[in-house]
Write a structure and sequence with these properties.
The protein has 118 residues and is mainly alpha-helical. The chain has one domain (22-112). It is 56% helix and 3% strand. The chain contains 6 helices and 2 strands. It has helices spanning 24-28, 35-49, 53-59, 65-80, 89-94, 96-112; strands spanning 15-16, 19-20. Strands 1-2 form a two-stranded antiparallel ribbon. The longest helix is centred in the last third of the chain and has 17 residues, at 96-112. The chain is globular. The protein starts with 14 loop residues before the first strand and ends in a 6-residue tail after the last helix.
Length: 118
């Protein structure tokens, strides 16, 4: 069994005495303009509130800024850890169409959803 807390030969090959390696440069390239940030923030808000995507859109600039910052920070962490790719030309070619379609689909569904009872 690998013990990540040891400094001897039992240490996992991908770890150093300082812990798992992270890619800080890739993390720094994650900005608010990455469509995944708003998608994560709105999804987090919808899970917590039970409201619809339309309700999130209706908030406009009154959306919870803290959630957007938090989503960006978690996305940066996922990119730094290698769990998700950084957004770049390759990312845009491979994942961009999917994200654009997902966001369009959410917007379309939001336009036809019933407003929540508040």
């Amino acid at each position: 069994m690998i013990n990540p807390h040891t400094k001897g030969p039992d240490m996992a090959a991908t770890e150093s005495p300082e812990g798992p390696q992270i890619d800080r440069d890739a993390a720094e390239r994650v900005h608010y303009t990455d469509p995944r940030v708003r998608l994560l923030a709105s999804t987090r808000w919808r899970l917590a509130t039970g409201y619809t995507h339309r309700s999130w859109l209706a908030l406009g600039k009154d959306n919870p800024d803290a959630l957007i910052r938090e989503a960006r920070d978690w996305l940066r962490a996922a990119v730094a850890a290698g769990l998700l790719p950084a957004q770049n030309d390759e990312f845009d070619d491979e994942f961009g169409p999917y994200l654009n379609e997902a966001l369009k689909d959410q917007a379309f569904r939001a336009a036809y959803e019933e407003a929540p009872d508040a």
